[in-house]
Structure formats: structure tokens, C-alpha cells
Write a structure and sequence with these properties.
Blueprint (H helix, E strand, L loop, with lengths): L3 H4 L3 H12 L2 E4 L2 E4 L11 H14 L5 E10 L9 E10 L3 E10 L2 E12 L22 H7 L6 H8 L4 E5 L14 E8 L7 H11 L21 E12 L9 E11 L2 E10 L4 E13 L5
Antiparallel strand pairs: 1-2, 2-4, 3-6, 3-9, 4-5, 5-6, 7-8, 8-10, 9-12, 10-11, 11-12
Helix pairs in contact: 3-6
Length: 299
């Protein structure tokens, strides 16, 4: 029988930790601090910086306006060794829309610029693309189970990272390409949700979705080439990231993330995504371009 330490944190503890991570601390004069990931190593995950920047921007907007879009440029890789400071500029407040700019800085240097737009709730004409027909999440294994099944093939230095408990559960429709060289169409479908309940706060759910939207996306442009980060065949980094939030949703309920890559070249890959609720509502779209270079694996 495992003791509590061996079993690791509970699902609710993982989600509470994610909530704390994404919640920025006000310092006055529209300046906020995002705390570092507890136990984080190496480079900060880009989705974390985007989500914290969005939370900072939202804190400087009237509460009757919710984010409907954001556009971010990654300038430098952030480090898990330091907190991040977010400086918000109040560019515009109109009758229905507000615009904010955020500069994320670490150790005195900017690492990300983000612009976000906020909108009062209105009614209007509506249409959407239909959600693809895929197996439901209940019929699919979790990504955590899939990772454990191939752990012996993973380089030892990466095994702890691959198997650590996560606040977000993924259930992919297609097989992951971690250790195989199969060339596949640049299209993926993945169900996801938090592993425990989130508070009833639409601002937090938008931040969590911004966090998740940076997952599985950049790797889509590597699929047609049979290349893998885990095998040391790729150098990559996100260059920019855009997210459009269409409607309300809950990230603690199953949602489908569909990603595709219509183009790659010139050491860059373009990827886009659509996010649906389980009942088929299209609630978000994503676009991202990233650096992607083929490299020779180190022996």
C-alpha cells in the first residue's frame, strides 16, 4: 500500500495549485506579480505566462467585461527561478469594449507582450462549424496511462517530467508521437479537463483555457515529418499566440481540442486550433506560429 507521499498530491490539490499559479498578486499602479511554479525547472511554460498576463489584464477592467481575444508575442524564454512582473496599460475603454496591453518582465527584461480585448455580453446572430465526430472521452485512455506504457522508451533524464502528476487531464484520440517516427497528417483531436473542480469564476476558466491552449499545438506541425522532441530531433519555441474566446465554458468539464497545421517552412510552423464543449459548442479558436528546426540528436 502506498503512503500519501508516494501517492502524490490529490487531484483537488493539483487543481488548487494551478489556480494559485495563475492568480496574480496586485502591487498597485496596475502592476501585478505572477508567482513561479513550485518545483519548476528550466524554462517557464508559455501558456503559464499567457494565462497570468490575461489575469493581470482582466484585473484592470470593469467586471462586466470579459476577455474575448488576446494576441501575444514571446520575446525571450522565461526562467522558473524567478517570479514574473506584469505591467498593464489601459489603452481604451468604450461603450462596449475595452483594450489592455501587458508587458511581462523577468529580472528587468521583457519576456512577453500581450494585447487583450474585453467585451460586454451582447446577443447577436450566430453560427459555427460543427464539432468533428470522435470517440467520447469515456472510451479513451488518459495521456498519463499512455505515458506510463512507454516510459521505458523515454530517455531517463525526461522520465520524471513525463510522469509527474498534472492538473490537466488529456485523452487523445490519435496515438501520441513521442517515440515513433511515423509520418502522419497534421491533425489531432484531444479531450481535456482539469482533474478536479474549479471555482465558479468565468475569469479563471478563461485563464485556464489560455493555459491549456498552448498544449499539443506546436507539435502538430511536426507530425507530417515524423520528428519528436523526446528523441532530440527538434529545436522549437513559440513565437506568437492568439486566442479568441467566443462563449462561456467550464474547464473542469470535458472539452475537445482540435489542432491542425496547414503550413510549415523557413524554420517556422503555423498551427491553429478549435475548442468545443462536449455538447458541441465552439467556444474558442487558437492560432500560433513557432520556431521549428530539425536537429541531429546527440548521442
Amino acid at each position: 500500500m502506498m503512503n500519501s507521499e508516494e501517492a502524490g498530491p490529490s487531484p483537488q490539490a493539483l487543481v488548487d495549485g494551478l489556480t494559485r499559479l495563475l492568480t496574480v498578486v496586485p502591487q498597485g499602479n496596475d502592476i501585478f506579480v505572477g508567482k513561479r511554479q513550485k518545483g519548476g525547472v528550466g524554462r517557464v511554460f508559455g501558456g503559464e505566462v499567457i494565462a497570468q498576463a490575461l489575469m493581470a489584464a482582466t484585473a484592470a477592467v470593469d467586471p462586466d467585461r470579459l476577455a474575448h481575444s488576446l494576441h501575444a508575442y514571446f520575446l525571450r524564454g522565461g526562467s522558473e527561478e524567478s517570479d514574473i512582473t506584469y505591467r498593464v496599460e489601459r489603452d481604451f475603454d468604450g461603450g462596449s469594449f475595452s483594450a489592455r496591453r501587458v508587458i511581462a518582465e523577468q529580472d528587468g527584461r521583457p519576456i512577453l507582450n500581450l494585447a487583450a480585448s474585453f467585451h460586454k455580453l451582447e446577443s447577436g446572430v450566430s453560427h459555427q462549424d460543427a464539432m468533428p465526430e470522435v470517440p467520447p472521452p469515456d472510451d479513451l485512455p488518459s495521456e498519463a496511462d499512455l505515458r506510463r506504457a512507454v516510459i521505458d522508451q523515454i530517455p531517463e533524464r525526461l522520465r520524471r517530467l513525463m510522469t509527474r502528476p498534472r492538473a490537466i487531464e488529456f485523452r487523445p484520440v490519435e496515438a501520441r508521437h513521442w517515440m515513433n517516427s511515423e509520418k502522419r497528417p497534421a491533425l489531432t483531436h484531444s479531450w481535456f479537463r482539469t482533474v478536479a473542480t474549479l471555482p465558479d469564476d468565468p475569469v479563471l476558466h478563461r485563464a485556464v483555457l489560455a493555459y491549456v491552449s498552448d498544449m499539443t499545438l506546436l507539435g502538430t506541425c511536426a507530425l507530417p515529418h515524423g520528428l519528436s522532441w523526446l528523441k532530440g530531433e527538434l529545436q522549437s519555441a513559440s513565437l506568437d499566440h492568439a486566442l479568441w474566446l467566443h462563449d462561456d465554458f467550464r474547464c473542469d468539464e470535458w472539452m475537445l481540442y482540435v489542432t491542425e497545421s496547414p503550413w510549415a517552412g523557413r524554420a517556422r510552423g503555423f498551427n491553429q486550433g478549435s475548442i468545443y464543449t462536449r455538447d458541441g459548442r465552439l467556444v474558442a479558436n487558437v492560432a500560433q506560429e513557432g520556431l521549428i528546426r530539425k536537429v541531429t540528436p546527440k548521442p
